[in-house]
């Protein structure tokens, strides 16, 4: 990764033609790359808002993943267009936690309302409820304080469905974890 004349350059190595991907999947994969690269630059104190020029094997590329035009550097798309609307940050997948622990993350959901469930190793619901993100309809923090007996569990956090099934399926995020 190199920053040159107000553009972050990232060099991919190897084949980048994934013709099995749809145009939407290719766009999301490209945005994932752009978000990752710009976040890495921001984490080191650089300007994470810079556009990203993608090189392949050290050379400027015209296209990537089939349909993505690389003639100009790529900027981050709006988060609401490319991110999962519910994201669990903690616990991490496979984490081992104490009996008293916190589930936290970010969400951009209707009325800032989230549903959550805790499933045991038999997939039975052992706890459930609602949580509130800090703000409606834009990415903001949410947090659940929980206490569980030792065992293996899954937490599922989902947006609510104000359309009662008329719209797209609600987005959710899931983590498996163990309580010591």
Give a description of the structure.
The protein is 14% helix and 43% strand. The chain is mainly β and 180 residues long. The longest helix has 21 residues. It contains 2 helices and 14 strands. The mean pLDDT is 93. It folds into 2 domains: 80 residues, no CATH class; 96 residues, Immunoglobulin-like (Sandwich), CATH 2.60.40.1220. Strand 5 and strand 6 form a beta hairpin. A 5-stranded mixed sheet has the order 8-14-13-10-11, with no helix packed on it. Strands 1-2-3-4 form a 4-stranded mixed sheet. The radius of gyration is 20 Å and the shape is elongated.
Give the biggest sheet. Answer: 5 strands, mixed
Strand order of the largest sheet: 8-14-13-10-11
Q: What spatial form do the alpha-carbon principal axes imply?
A: elongated
Instruction: Tell me the radius of gyration.
Output: 20 Å
Tally of strands: 14
CATH architecture of the largest domain: Sandwich
Structural class: mainly beta
CA(first)-CA(last) distance: 41 Å
- Give the C-level CATH assignment of the largest domain: Mainly Beta
- CATH topology title of the largest domain: Immunoglobulin-like
- Rounded average pLDDT: 93
Quick description:
14% of the residues lie in helices and 43% in strands. It is mainly beta and 180 residues long.
Topology at a glance:
Elements (H helix, E strand, L loop, with lengths): L1 E3 L2 E6 L10 H21 L8 E5 L2 E2 L2 E2 L3 E2 L9 H4 L3 E5 L4 E3 L2 E8 L5 E8 L4 E8 L7 E8 L3 E9 L12 E8 L1
Parallel strand pairs: 2-3, 8-14
Antiparallel strand pairs: 1-2, 3-4, 5-6, 7-9, 9-12, 10-11, 10-13, 13-14
């Amino acid at each position: 990764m190199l920053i040159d004349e107000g553009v972050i350059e990232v060099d991919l190595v190897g084949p980048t033609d994934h013709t099995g991907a749809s145009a939407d999947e290719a766009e999301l994969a490209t945005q994932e790359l752009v978000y990752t690269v710009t976040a890495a630059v921001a984490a080191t104190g650089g300007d994470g808002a810079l556009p990203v020029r993608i090189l392949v094997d050290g050379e400027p590329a015209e296209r990537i993943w089939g349909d993505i035009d690389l003639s100009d550097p790529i900027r981050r798309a709006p988060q609401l267009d490319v991110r999962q609307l519910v994201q669990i940050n903690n616990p991490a997948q496979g984490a081992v936690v104490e009996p008293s622990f916190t589930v936290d993350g970010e969400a951009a959901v209707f009325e800032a309302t989230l549903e959550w469930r805790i499933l045991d190793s038999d997939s039975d619901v052992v706890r459930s409820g609602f949580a509130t993100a800090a703000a409606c309809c834009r990415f903001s923090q949410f947090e659940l304080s929980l206490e569980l007996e030792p065992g293996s569990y899954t937490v599922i956090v989902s947006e609510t469905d104000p359309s009662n099934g008329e719209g797209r399926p609600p987005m959710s995020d899931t983590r498996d974890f163990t309580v010591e």
